[in-house]
Design a protein that fits this description.
The strands form two sheets. Strands 2, 4, 5, 6, 9, 10 and 11 form a seven-stranded mixed beta sheet that branches. By secondary structure, the chain is mainly β. Strand 9 and strand 10 form a beta hairpin. The protein has no helices and eleven strands.
């Protein structure tokens, strides 16, 4: 089982990045997918979730990310994405994807660093 994030990097305030998380080794379409982030010295926090098609493909965001971040998934590619726009320095963190079933996280990715700085 693997979740491999990519797309992180250094971006200026106000810029955009798209993170990808490629899954393998499990039935991707049967899992809700989540993005988390962890800033230095802080606890890991939930960013966004997207349910399975059977769950209605429901999407939820943490309030501070609404309107700036967009989560999506392409089951045919076993990939979940996080489009991040209007980035702020406080968005600097390691971003992780996770696969969950019945509300319990089964798998974590290794994380990708996002740094927002001028």
């Amino acid at each position: 089982v693997q979740l491999v994030e990519s797309g992180g990097g250094l971006v200026q305030p106000g810029g955009s990045l798209r993170l990808s998380c490629a899954a393998s080794g499990f039935t991707f379409s049967s899992y809700s997918m989540r993005w988390y982030r962890q800033a230095p010295g802080k606890e890991r926090e939930l960013v966004a979730t997207i349910s399975t098609a059977g769950g209605g493909g429901m999407i939820n965001y943490v309030d501070s990310m609404k309107g700036r971040f967009t989560i999506s998934r392409v089951n045919a590619k076993n990939t979940v994405y996080l489009q991040m726009d209007s980035l702020k320095p406080e968005d600097t963190a390691v971003y992780y994807c996770a696969a969950a079933r019945a509300g319990v996280i089964s798998y974590w990715g290794q994380g990708t660093q996002v740094t927002v700085s001028s």
